[in-house]
Task: structure prediction
Amino acid sequence: MPKTNQGFLRKKMKKKKDYYCTNGHMSYAGRHLIIELWDAKNLSSLPKIRKSLKDSVNAIGATLLNIHLHKFSPSGGVSGVALISESHISVHTWPEYKYAALDIFVCGEVNPYEAINILKKQYETSNIQVSEIKRGIF
Result:
């Protein structure tokens, strides 16, 4: 982003409450966790995946707007998204590989890391990899 736009955004952020993040050193649009689950279970169960999304939304302190899931055949894999006021949580599963890819993108004061233990429990795995990207650094 050109420096002239960065200054404009900083001034705008100071004037009103906005959905952005800050860690005391920088401001940014949001935190994006990329989560990989290996040796996971419950990857074809729509009710359990829906519950994992709802419980994750509650754990991070977000506001749930809607959940949409789709189950593929013949693999039984599921793709879905929990749309939240603060952005989204998405899930894509490959039961044949015991693998799930999730991402949690949030802005504002919610803490996406609060969902990690929920995901470990609901997908019955401790084999997890988490990466964080700060999006839209101002």
